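FAQ: What does the model actually see?

It sees only this:
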Amino acid sequence: MQLVEHIKMRLQDENHLYIYFLFILNLYRMGKLSANEVHKNVADLFQDHHDLITEFTNFLSQCHANSIGTITLAMNTQAHQQKGEVFSLKR
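And it is asked to produce this:
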């Protein structure tokens, strides 16, 4: 299961957190946030979900180690799937 899908499932009772998580990722994709700012914002957002912070931190570390500055992440939400939209996070 991809990280984003896992987070979506975990936050299904707190959908506002999931939507804001996608918003943060989209800001990164548009170049408005650095990777460090994404990490800080996600850590603040998931302050009551320490395991999700750890998973996201590990994910960022793997992306950095594997792709030297490029993070690619497909984000599919029900709303975006219904519209046929898929976001890619590339930086």
